[in-house]
Amino acid sequence: MIIVTGASRGLGKAICERLIAKGTQVLGLSRSCSPSAYPIVGCDVTSYENIKAIAADLRKKGVVVEALINAAGIASMNLAVTTPPDVARKIIETNLLGTIFSCQSFSPIMMRKKSGCIINFSTIAVALGLKGEAIYVASKAGVEGFSRAFAREMADFGIRVNCIAPGPIDTDLLKGVTKQQIHKITEQQIFQKQFEPDAICDLVEMLLDSKSQSITGQVIHVGGV
């Protein structure tokens, strides 16, 4: 089974649909549980107790978790000095702590069988240091640093940990972002264009494949920097 957070929309939903189409067993985690072709469990990734309880239930049922994909995330394009404290806290808790809590909860299941794959999500905005996204960048920079260090901690257990850092992707996350703002970001990438979710799904499939067994501790920028 593959666990996917943020499974009800955006990249999480696209990844789940791709995996299901390939015949992979998926369990989605999301705050909203809308009808879908795959099971979704209600989960707030900012709650360690919530995630831990789901992981404990899977262990109790003897479910084999092969991979964890942390796609849950939120963004807010505001100057740091004008970002309300509650918004800053929510971004950090969802993007960084949500990723950490999920890894803490589900990696022990993979550790028991000495194999597994964890894919976390960052953003190209970290490498570019984008103006107006300082809090979002801070949360995702934390995800990158955590992923690199966690990859070393998991290496002895045969678990690979990598991070995907996309440029602007056509999902709900970009609602409210103007075409002009998107263009200002993409023009700083090597490939100066906006990518579709399929491009991310292709990369996820590659990292999940056994042919990528030597790849760990990496941050892969979609679009190039």
- Principal-axis shape equals globular
Intertermini distance = 33 Å
Helix content: 40-55%
CATH fold type: Rossmann fold
Derived from helix and strand composition plus strand pairing, the structural class reads: alpha/beta
Q: Helix segment count? A: 7
Summarize the structure.
With 225 residues, the protein is α/β, with parallel strands linked by helices.
Report on this structure.
- With 225 residues, this protein is α/β, with parallel strands linked by helices.
- The chain has a single domain (2-222), classed as Rossmann fold (3-Layer(aba) Sandwich), CATH 3.40.50.
- The chain is built from 7 helices and 7 strands.
- The protein has helices spanning 10-21, 48-60, 85-113, 124-128, 134-154, 179-186, 197-208; strands at 2-5, 26-30, 40-42, 67-70, 116-121, 159-166, 219-222.
- The protein has a 7-stranded parallel beta sheet, sandwiched between helices.
- Strand 1, helix 1 (10-21) and strand 2 (26-30) form a beta-alpha-beta unit.
- Helix 2 runs parallel beside helix 3 (85-113).
- The mean pLDDT is 93.
